[in-house]
Design a protein that fits this description.
Layout (H helix, E strand, L loop, with lengths): L1 H27 L4 H34 L11 E5 L4 E7 L2 E9 L4 E9 L7 E9 H12 L2 H11 L9 E5 L18 H37 L6 H8 L2 H9 L12 H9 L12 H14 L8 H9 L9
Antiparallel strand pairs: 1-2, 1-6, 2-3, 3-4, 4-5
Helix pairs in contact: 1-2, 2-5, 6-7, 6-9, 7-10, 9-10
Length: 325
């Protein structure tokens, strides 16, 4: 569900972004329209990919939160119960309207009338009348209907719901509309069904909060790792930040002052995780970084910080001063 919508939105944005960028370029600077369109075309696949990834993440969260719950599996069905104890189920599949009239029998058996029609203006055409064990019916018709075990579990639960003085009551409101009784689609559910909705909503909220706490805990654990001596490049980025106190603490706790790191934090993190060795051509030591920032401090009229104290700490802790450019 979420992936489908993110796929559509991402595709629409990827296709429409060149037009949008061109319109903005015309309003700002007509001469830059070619560059704007080229820029948009280059980033269109990344926009589409980002929305696809977002859809996968949202779909995963939804699946986790609704796992083994009953009502989310019935989202495509509209379900009524009539005075004679029959259940009326409507759903739409492949642009065809389907109606099932189900009567629950003893010994785990059921009697099913299946009707179809192509549009709401046509009459229902009966396809078959079948009586069988519930398990057999589910196995035979699963490709057509889908989620039949959940449907029969819900019907078994609803068989105990009293009708009162009504000819029929609405038990579940899905994505389609039961066109034979359109006015009933907005009536309130029986108290027992409302209680079931509340219980399942509480479960979904608890699971969602638990997932959020887990994600926050993992992010916090990652942050602690990146700040500790267990992460080799933590001292390099402390130098990059100009945090003298942090550099001093890391050196006291055994950080390597001669570690080579990439300037990109993401590249350095991936190299540490994948255990990729960095040579002096592609990497930079904390001392080299501190000296580079000091040069900028001198050349750019003190707009950069003075790293003299950090340089002293690094040299005193054994930082190599050979081959410094």
């Amino acid at each position: 569900m979420f992936f489908k919508w993110c796929f559509r939105i991402g595709g629409a944005l990827a296709v429409g972004s060149p037009v949008l960028f061109a319109m903005i370029a015309i309003m700002i600077e007509p001469m830059g329209i070619g560059f704007a369109i080229g820029y948009a075309l280059a980033f269109a696949p990344f926009i589409f990919l980002a929305f696809c990834v977002l859809g996968i993440i949202l779909e995963g969260i939804y699946t986790f939160c609704t796992r083994k719950l009953l009502l989310p599996k019935l989202k495509e069905f509209v379900i009524f119960r009539t005075q004679n104890g029959h259940f009326l189920i409507s759903f739409k599949k492949a642009k065809v309207f389907h109606k099932l009239e189900i009567k629950l029998l003893e010994d785990m058996q059921c009697q099913v009338w299946h009707s179809t029609r192509q549009s709401v203006n046509q009459e229902w055409r009966e396809q078959y009348l079948q009586q069988s064990l519930i398990n057999e019916f589910c196995n035979k018709n699963l490709p057509l209907v889908g989620n039949l075990p959940a449907l029969f579990a819900f019907l078994d639960f609803c068989a105990k719901v009293p009708l009162g003085h009504k000819d029929r009551i609405l038990l579940h409101r899905g994505m389609s509309v039961y066109w034979d009784f359109p006015l009933l689609n907005d009536e309130p559910f029986p108290q027992e069904i409302q209680s079931l909705h509340k219980r399942e909503k509480k479960v979904i909220i608890k699971r969602f909060l638990a997932l959020c706490l887990l994600i926050i805990a993992l992010i916090f654990a990652l942050w602690l790792y990146l700040q500790s001596t267990f992460y080799p490049c933590s001292i390099y980025y402390a130098v990059q930040e100009g945090n003298t106190k942090k550099v001093e603490n890391l050196l006291k706790n055994g950080a390597n002052p001669n570690v080579l790191c990439w300037k990109s934090k993401l590249a350095a993190f991936l190299s540490a995780i994948l255990n990729i060795n960095i040579d002096s051509k592609s990497g930079q030591s904390p001392l080299q970084r501190a000296i580079e920032d000091n040069k900028k401090y001198i050349e750019q009229e003190r707009t950069y910080r003075n790293n003299n104290e950090i340089i002293k700490l690094l040299i005193e802790s054994g930082a190599q001063i050979e081959n410094l450019s």
